[in-house]
Amino acid sequence: MFYWILLALAIVAEITGTLSLKWASQGDSPAGFILMMVMISLSYILLAFSVKKIALGVAYAMWEGVGIVLITLFSVLLFNESLSVNKIIGLVILLSGIALIKTGTRQQKAQEVQHGV
């Protein structure tokens, strides 16, 4: 459970860092760039710790996929970006892919336990 919390924190840090890209590009202050660098770095560090117990493919898919979904939604809410039907379909496909990767990893572990691997 601890490693899933680390992954969730990595996702939050990635979202914060990526959203601050927009903030940094709109202002003259270096604060947005500093926040972006700190949060993206923290995100990778937390992701690295989370893969100690979570399969790399699952952790990375969730980190990147959930991040993309939430960044897209926050971009619509915070920056008035558009959310077209194509974007919605893409996000649904992305989430479906993450679910399939997660399910496939769980099935593989169950088979390994059955076969004593």
Provide tags for this entry.
mainly alpha; 117 residues; 4 helices; single chain; transmembrane; Small_multidrug_res; antiporter activity
Q: Roughly what percent helix? A: over 70%
Output the structural class: mainly alpha
Beta-strand content estimate: under 5%
* Average residue pLDDT: 89
Shape: flat
Can you summarize the main beta sheet?
A: none
User: What is the number of helical segments per DSSP (H or I, 4+ residues)?
Assistant: 4
Oligomeric assembly: single chain
What gyration radius follows from the Cα positions, in whole Å? 17 Å
| Low-pLDDT segments | none
Care to count the β-strands? 0
Count of discrete domains: 1
> How many angstroms does the end-to-end distance come to?
23 Å
State the order of secondary-structure elements, H for helix, E for strand: HHHH
Family: Belongs to the drug/metabolite transporter (DMT) superfamily. Small multidrug resistance (SMR) (TC 2.A.7.1) family.
GO molecular function, one term: amino-acid betaine transmembrane transporter activity
Pfam family, one: Multi_Drug_Res
Subcellular location: Cell inner membrane; Cell membrane
